[in-house]
Amino acid sequence: MTTDHLRSTGSGSGPGDPVRPGGLVLPRYRHDDPDTHPPMLHPDYGSTNLRAPRQPLALLPHRLTEITGPLLGTGRLGELDHDLTRQHDGEPLGQRIIVHGRVLDGNGRPVPDTLVEIWQPNAAGRYRHAGDNWPAPLDPNFTGVGRAMTDGDGHYRFVTVQPGAYPWRNHPNAWRPAHIHFSLFGRAFTQRLVTQMYFPGDPLFFQDPIFNSVRDPLARERLVSRYDHAVTEPEWALGFEFDIVLRGREATPFEDGDDDD
Amino acid sequence: MTERSDPTPALGTTPTLGSTPAQTVGPYLHIGLLWPDGPEVVPDGTPGAIWIRGQIFDGAGAPVPDALVETWQADPDGRFDHPDDPRGARPSDVPGFRGFGRSATDVDGRYGIRTVKPGSLPGPDGVPEAPHLNLSIFARGLLHRLVTRLYFPDEEAANAADPVLGSVDPARRATLVASPAPDGCRLDIHLQGTDETVFFAV
Ligand SMILES: [Fe+2]
C-alpha cells in the first residue's frame, strides 16, 4: 500500500515523537518506503480494477489497537503442521524441499513466538481447492497447508515439496511463477503481512503482474528465496532460505536496548 | 545502555531493514487461512455476545465471494492481553476472549464475527477513542490488505468525539459506523464506488 496520498489526521505528533494517548507512551511503527508494497490499483493484474479503492487512504495513527495484536499460541498447531510431506498415509510426489528462515523486524530484531501460516499448490501446480479445476492432477498425499511458530530466535522451518507453476486467465498464456503463500502476524496489528515466497531464477517472473506489482526492484528481490546448500540434506531434500522482514519501530527516547522487548 | 553481548542491536542504532512486500492472498486463501473457530472472538454462549455481519462489494456492486475479514479489538474493559499495552497485559474477564476474529466471505460476499463489544480506549490529550474494531480485508485483487474500522451505532456521543473518526471526511464517516441488527450490528464494505468505505494506511 503506498503512502504517497496520505492525509494527516492532525494528531500533533511529529516524526519520532512517541504517541501518548491518555499519557501512555506507545511504540510507533515506521512507515515503509512507498514502493516497497504494491499499489492497490495495478491494471496489469486485472482483478485489481474493480477491487482497489479509488479514494486516497486516510492515515491511522498508532494507538492501542494498532500497537497490539493477536499473540496466538502453540495451541493452534498440530504436531505435523510444519511438515507438509507427512500429513497423509503416503508421501506426496515432487521434489522434497526444506523452507526455512527468520522473521525479523525492520530493526533487525527477531520476532519470536509468532504464527506463520503457509499454503501452496502441489508439485503439478494444482491447489486442493474447489475453485482450482485446471487439468493437472491432485495428489492424494498432499494438502498444501502448513503452520509453524517462530522460535526464540525468530526462526521457522517447513518441509514440503516444490510447488508447480500454474496457469491463470489474467492475460494470454499467463502462468504464475512457483510460489508459496505466507501469512504472518508479528506482534502488532501494524505488522500483519500476507505475502508470497518465490524461487530463485524463475523464468516466469517477466510476465507475472503480481510479482512485478512491487515497483522497487530491491524490494521485489526480497520476495525471492535463496537456495541454501547448508540446509540441503544429503540424499533427502533441497534447502531454501526465506527471511521475512516486518515493519520496525521508530526509535524513541524512552526505549533502549535493554528493555526492547 | 549497558554493555552486554546481546547480538540484538538497540533501537535507533541499527540500519533499518526494508520490509518484505505484501502480495495478494489469491483465490485459494481458504485452504491456508480458514480456522474452524475463526469467526469466534468469544466462545458460544458468552453473555452479551453479538454478531457483526456484513457484505463486501466490488466497484460494480457485485458481492465479493472470496475475501477474508479479520478483526482485532480490545475487551469490554478496553484492555488488551498484550505486553506492549503500557497499562500492562491483562487477560480479559470474558472467558475465552481472543480479541481476534477471522471470517471468509460466502458466495454472497457475507462475513460474520461473533464477539463482545469492546470498551473505549484512552486516547491522546485525554480524549478517549470510541469503542471500535480494526478490520483487515484480504482478497484476490487486493495486492495488500485493506484496513478499516468499525464503530458502533449506539455510541453517538463517543463517536462524535473520536479522534480517528473525526479525522475522516465527514461525508464518508458513515462508512465506518455499523447499523443495528437484531443480534448485533451490520457493516457493509464497499471496496470502490460512490459508497466506497474509508480505508486507512496503518
Ligand atoms: Fe497461489
Automatic annotation (TrEMBL), chain A:
Annotated GO MF terms: protocatechuate 3,4-dioxygenase activity
Region (Disordered): 1-42
EC number from the UniProt entry: 1.13.11.3
Annotated ranges, domain Intradiol ring-cleavage dioxygenases: 99-127
UniProt keyword list: Dioxygenase, Oxidoreductase
Entries under Gene3D superfamilies matching the protein: Aromatic compound dioxygenase
Broad EC category: oxidoreductase
Pfam families: Dioxygenase_C, PCDO_beta_N
Keyword Cell wall biogenesis/degradation annotated: no
Keyword set includes Oxidoreductase: yes
UniProt-listed PANTHER family: DIOXYGENASE, PUTATIVE (AFU_ORTHOLOGUE AFUA_2G02910)-RELATED, INTRADIOL RING-CLEAVAGE DIOXYGENASES DOMAIN-CONTAINING PROTEIN
Similarity annotation: Belongs to the intradiol ring-cleavage dioxygenase family.
NCBIfam families: protocat_beta
Name of the protein in its database record: Protocatechuate 3,4-dioxygenase subunit beta
Species of provenance: Plantactinospora alkalitolerans
Lineage: Bacteria, Bacillati, Actinomycetota, Actinomycetes, Micromonosporales
Automatic annotation (TrEMBL), chain B:
Coiled-coil ranges per UniProt: none
Name of the protein in question: Protocatechuate 3,4-dioxygenase subunit alpha
Entry's EC annotation: 1.13.11.3
Keyword Oxidoreductase: yes
Enzyme class: oxidoreductase
Pfam family, one: Dioxygenase_C
Cross-referenced PANTHER family: DIOXYGENASE, PUTATIVE (AFU_ORTHOLOGUE AFUA_2G02910)-RELATED, PROTOCATECHUATE 3,4-DIOXYGENASE ALPHA CHAIN
GO MF term set: protocatechuate 3,4-dioxygenase activity
Name of the encoding gene: pcaG
Domain named Intradiol ring-cleavage dioxygenases: residues: 49-178
Record key words, sorted: Dioxygenase, Oxidoreductase
Annotated Low complexity bias: 7-22
Basic and acidic residues bias: start-end ranges: 76-90
UniProt keyword Signal, yes or no: no
InterPro entries: Intradiol_dOase_C, Intradiol_dOase_core, Intradiol_RC_Dioxygenase, Protocat_dOase_a
Region (Disordered): 1-23, 74-101
UniProt record similarity statement: Belongs to the intradiol ring-cleavage dioxygenase family.
